[in-house]
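PROTEIN DESIGN WORKSHEET
SECTION A - STRUCTURE
LENGTH: 124
TOKENS:
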């Protein structure tokens, strides 16, 4: 007599194999979502830093502070707010009457996401 279909034991074995396979896949998907979120935060932090640097470029280097830090600026990018702090002349060798060394720190959720350094000069 020929049997058609699967027995209960065969079905349970197939489900067990599927369960074992999913044990490896599910944590990987959580890691990928986390990496994607961090990548989005970093990209947005870069955009926030670019906005602040563009604002600073409008000023003459001599009008920028020669030391210290600025107040925290809140910059909205996408649906999130980032906190940007500018530090001036942390490397004194790059600071003069027409030149400023600037370090921007961009934070999100109380955690530094991006740091960029640049030197502004007045072009002749």
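SECTION B - SEQUENCE
RESIDUE ASSIGNMENT:
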């Amino acid at each position: 007599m020929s049997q058609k279909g699967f027995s209960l034991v065969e079905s349970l074995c197939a489900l067990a194999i599927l369960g074992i396979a999913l044990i490896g896949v599910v944590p990987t998907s959580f890691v990928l979502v986390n990496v994607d979120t961090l990548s989005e935060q970093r990209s947005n932090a870069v955009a926030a830093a670019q906005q602040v640097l563009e604002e600073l470029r409008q000023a003459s280097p001599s009008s920028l502070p020669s030391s210290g830090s600025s107040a925290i600026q809140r910059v909205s990018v996408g649906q999130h707010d980032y906190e940007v702090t500018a530090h001036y002349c942390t490397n004194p060798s790059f600071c003069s009457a027409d030149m400023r060394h600037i370090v921007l720190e961009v934070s999100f959720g109380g955690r530094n996401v991006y740091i960029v350094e640049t030197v502004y000069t007045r072009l002749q």
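SECTION C - NOTES
The chain has one helix and four strands.
Residues 89 and 95 are 6 Å apart (CA to CA).
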